[in-house]
Amino acid sequence: MTVMPPALSPDDNARTRVLLTVDTELTIRTEEQPGDWIDGYARSYEAAGVGVPYQLRVLAQYALKACFFVDPMPACLYGIEPIKRMVDPILSAGQEVQLHLHPRWYGPRDGILVGEYELNSYDLNKQREMITKARELLMEAGVPEPCAFRAGSYAANDDTLRVLAELGFRFDSSHNGSEHPWPSSIDLPREQITPVEYLGVTEVPVTLIGDGPQTRHLQVCAVSLGELEAAIRHAGAARLPVVNIVSHSFELANRTGTAPNRVHVRRFEALCEFLSTCRDRFPTVFFSDLDEVELDVRSDMLPNSALRRFGRMVEQIWSNQVAERGA
Question: What is the mean pLDDT of residues 79-94?
Answer without folding.
Answer: 97
